[in-house]
Amino acid sequence: MKYPKVKIKQIPLKLELEVLNYFVFNANNNFGKYVFMEHPNLKNAKSKKEVEKYIIDLSRKNQKVIESSISVFRKKWQKVEKDFFNILPEIMGTEWPQGKIITAYVSINPISPRFLDKWAFSINYKKQSNTSRVKEIFMHEIVHFLYFKKWKEVFPKSKRRTFDYPYVEWRLSEILAPIILNYSPARKLIGKSADSYDEHEKIKIGNNSIVKHFEDLYKKSIKQQKSFDEFLQTAYKEILKYESKF
């Protein structure tokens, strides 16, 4: 089996600026607060020019640390890469597409957005000391790439826009990604439990969080030896019942 190649490099300024501008100036997103916690100076930014200057200045000041992070991330990832790339197709029942390159962009952004069409994601340069967290971020984001390949096979009429925030298909993928990691051999590769979004843990279905609800569905599916196709069909029907909770 051939696996994707993973390239780790510093995020281009244009992309860094585009993403941070979205989080800084889009009041409708729920993630800006994390950017402001890491970069409080951006909370009062009035223009994209201000954001650009901040990014350039901070990146220059921390360039050596960013370059060190690239090297550290590469070493940490290479230790688990082959095993993880073997595990994921077996879970999802679909093969890696040939010739794909996955790009991990090292960024000043505390959030790790993924760019589905490019098979790319970002990771904060300060994460280098936390080995488990680094592996978890890589695995979580890479899950999305193969997951949505599988989703298109199971639901071929799905519209591409629904794979991103704030659509329920995106929500389901974010709920399921850590569950998939935690109930597979990937859990041992990470060295800890993969984390779910805090906002999802707060959403209740009866006495349980929505995360626990889908975790139980996934465990039941595994116990009954159902295919991942069958599980996705069940999970999609289930989350549509609770769409109004998001």
In short:
This protein is an alpha/beta fold. The chain contains 11 helices and 6 strands.
Protein described:
By secondary structure, the chain is α/β, with parallel strands linked by helices. The strands form 2 sheets. A 4-stranded mixed sheet has the order 1-2-4-3, with helices on one face. Strands 5-6 form a two-stranded antiparallel ribbon. It is built from 11 helices and 6 strands. The chain has helices at residues 13-25, 32-38, 48-61, 63-78, 81-92, 131-154, 168-182, 186-190, 198-201, 210-223, 228-241; strands at residues 5-10, 101-107, 114-115, 120-124, 204-205, 208-209.
Strand order within the widest sheet? 1-2-4-3
N-to-C series of helices and strands: EHHHHHEEEHHHHEEHH
Query: How many angstroms does the end-to-end distance come to?
Result: 39 Å
The shape is: globular
Radius of gyration from CA coordinates: 18 Å
Strand content: 5-15%
**In percent, how helical is the residue content?**
55-70%
User: Given the helix and strand composition, which structural class is it?
Assistant: alpha/beta
Biggest sheet details: 4 strands, mixed
What is the count of DSSP helices, taking H or I runs of 4+ residues?
Answer: 11
DSSP, total strands: 6
The overall pLDDT average reads: 96
List unreliable stretches of 5+ residues. Answer: none
